[in-house]
């Protein structure tokens, strides 16, 4: 019995997992590039980023203050999770093509943009 077999198998599995991850990353970049190439795709990405509230601060005073209101920590946690999704999307947009981010943030395509 080869005592190094488990370590060699782990190394092989790690390499395969890395290849799958790189392929998934490439497919995501391609999907973002496809969205960015279309006006409707850019509109959708802007809408999603807007709803993730990437560029707004959480206002605890604006929330419910009654006894059934969620504690501030829970609301902040939810807001940060939503913001994390939006920031991850922005990072993916930038990784797909460095010029995409500035194009996405310029929402002058028409007067109905979000």
Residue share in helix: 55-70%
Tell me the structural class. Answer: mainly alpha
The strand count comes to 0
Q: What low-confidence regions span 5 or more consecutive residues with pLDDT below 50? A: none
Strand residue percentage: under 5%
Alpha-carbon Rg, integer? 21 Å
In angstroms, what separates the terminal alpha carbons?
64 Å
N-to-C SSE series? Answer: HHHH
What's the shape? Answer: flat
Provide the residue-averaged pLDDT: 84
Largest sheet: none
SS element count, helices: 4
Description:
- The protein has 114 residues and is mostly helical.
Entry keywords:
single chain, 114 residues, mainly alpha, 0% strand
Give the helix/strand layout.
Layout: H1 5-36, H2 39-52, H3 72-96, H4 98-105
Helix pairs in contact: 1-3, 2-3, 3-4
Short description:
By secondary structure, the chain is mainly alpha-helical. The protein has helices at 5-36, 39-52, 72-96, 98-105. The radius of gyration is 21 Å and the shape is flat.
